[in-house]
Design goal:
The protein is of the alpha/beta class. It has three domains: 96 residues, Substrate Binding Domain Of Dnak, Chain:A, Domain 2; 145 residues, Rossmann fold, CATH 3.40.50.2030; 186 residues, Rossmann fold (3-Layer(aba) Sandwich), CATH 3.40.50. Helices cover 47% and strands 13% of the residues. The chain has 19 helices and 13 strands. The strands form three sheets. A six-stranded parallel sheet has the order 4-3-2-5-6-7. A five-stranded parallel sheet has the order 11-10-9-12-13, with helices on both faces. A two-stranded antiparallel ribbon has the order 1-8. The structure holds iron/sulfur cluster. The site of iron/sulfur cluster has 14 residues, from helix 7 and helix 14. Iron/sulfur cluster binds next to helix 7 and helix 14.
């Protein structure tokens, strides 16, 4: 993209067009693959899995799985790898970069988590889903003095925004908006009787939310033309008129405040957390303003204070006690001097367990990790964002390789990935792009290929 004397907006339009072009690209290779260590790029080329375009690989895997097309599981799995790399080093990474350009790269910020963040005397709006554009606008609309006055005219003392699932992580990272809960807490939030509107966009919205809301006064508001729910009201979010859509949503919640029943019960539980550890911020915190780098991390791995880094991420799974898989694994890792980076619902679970605070290092971490956390002033578990932001973990791993001393490829690093309670389809893609990037990866609860010994053996032993 030509920079020259052009304005930021002109440059931004070209960057945007190029990024969108990566999704529709039909030939060659995704540009963002060049961010991976050279050795890893060579592996992808050698194996014929370097993605040509984000959408192209998805369309191809859909064709191959159509009846009567690709009948060799080895060939199907290989194309799955190609599509997954296109997600991690393409679609997700581009989305994270563009969000950071539009809304700012996250930096450490204080927040709160759990259902106790709901306020009895305020209009409670929960933003639930994944798209930060909508939530950014609702944050702005809820702070509009006109809206606050309207809320007061209805008997509320103000407007209280909170987030759920990955939208929660986005608005926490950039605005410190509290998190009401993760995936398995969405119905529970409604049953407090204090949620005046739950605004949803895409992904991870329970099919039951509208039915549960019928027992209370809560309005479920769908906003995406791609995701409608019977029984919910629909206020379409129009990006070209974003503030008007956001104001209409906030006003609907305010108008609903007087309809609350007397059955309000908000649990007291809430915890503090520090979030906002983007790859760039970790770089700066470790290396300082003049020499931002991962050098101190690599050095502390080499001298044995830290045994490695684990990315523990992903969903809640209803087949295990809420957050149990996440918290047990993360506590065990930090106790054994493994630093943890986290995203998605694991990050929210860790926040609720008090693991995202610097003082958690002294309480839960092994001696070596605790000493490093104390010196740098960071928690032993670093919140890096939403599930889309798993690409930040890839960037951190690539930076560790670049800083040297631990090997030439991500597969040489003492790093691991885990989704202890995964359940969504995209978790499979995320897990696969971690594996394809050279990361030892573990999934909890169950595994979809267990019905076939042949596929499972191939996947875990030979692949
Ligand atoms: S981590 Fe899983 S459950 Fe949680 S928001 Fe992301 S995809 Fe949904």
């Amino acid at each position: 993209v030509e920079i020259g004397e052009r304005s930021n907006n002109e440059i931004a339009i070209d960057v945007g067009k190029m990024c969108l072009g990566e999704y529709g690209r039909q030939e060659g290779e995704l540009l963002f693959l060049r961010r991976a260590p050279l050795k890893r790029q060579e592996v992808w080329r050698r194996e014929g899995v370097a993605p040509r375009g984000v959408d192209r690989e998805i369309v191809e895997i859909m064709h191959r799985t159509h009846i009567g097309v690709d009948q060799d599981y080895k060939s199907l799995l290989r194309q799955g790898v190609r599509a997954a790399i296109g997600d991690g080093w393409g679609g997700s990474m581009i989305a994270t970069e563009l969000q950071d350009i539009l809304f700012g790269t996250p930096t450490p910020i204080l927040g709160r988590a759990n259902l106790g963040v709901l306020e009895k005397d305020q209009v409670n709006i929960i933003i639930h889903g994944h798209e930060p554009l909508l939530s950014e606008m609702i944050v702005a609309a809820a702070q509009d003095p006109e809206m606050v006055e309207l809320a007061k005219s209805k008997g509320a003392s103000g407007i209280n925004l909170s987030g759920m699932c990955c939208t929660a992580n986005e608005i926490l990272m950039r605005h410190g908006v509290p998190i009401a809960g993760n995936f398995l807490q969405q119905e529970l939030a409604i049953t407090t009787g204090a949620v005046d509107a739950m605004v949803v966009d895409v992904q991870c919205i329970f099919q039951s939310v509208a039915t549960v809301a019928e027992c209370y006064h809560t309005k479920i508001i769908t906003t995406s033309p791609k995701a409608k729910i019977p029984g919910a009201m629909h206020i379409e979010f129009d990006e070209h008129n974003a503030m008007a859509s956001a104001r209409a949503i906030v006003k609907t919640a305010i108008d609903n405040f007087p309809n609350r029943g007397s059955n309000i019960e908000i649990p007291e539980e809430q915890t503090y957390q520090i979030a906002g550890f983007s790859h760039e911020t970790i770089n700066y915190l470790l290396g300082g303003v003049y020499r931002a780098s991962y050098r101190p991390l690599n050095d502390n791995i080499i001298n044995g204070r830290i045994r490695g880094v684990a990315g523990v991420v992903g969903c809640n799974n209803a087949r295990v006690q809420h957050n149990y898989g996440h918290i047990e694994m993360v506590k065990e890792l930090i106790k054994n001097d493994v630093a943890v980076v986290t995203t998605g619902c694991n990050a929210i679970a860790c926040a609720e367990a008090g693991l995202l605070l610097p003082e958690a290092a002294a309480k839960y971490a092994g001696e070596g990790l605790a000493s490093v956390c104390e010196t740098v002033g960071i928690p032993p578990v670093l919140h890096m964002g939403s599930c889309v932001d798993n690409s930040r973990i890839l960037m951190a791993a690539a930076a560790m390789v670049k800083d040297g001393g631990l090997g030439d490829d991500i597969s040489d690093l003492p790093v691991a990935g885990a989704a202890p309670e995964w359940m969504s389809e995209k978790a499979i893609s995320i897990g696969q792009y971690f594996v394809a990037s050279g990361v030892y990866t573990v999934f909890g609860v169950n595994w979809p290929t267990l019905g076939s010994d042949e596929v499972t053996d191939y996947l875990f032993k030979d692949f």
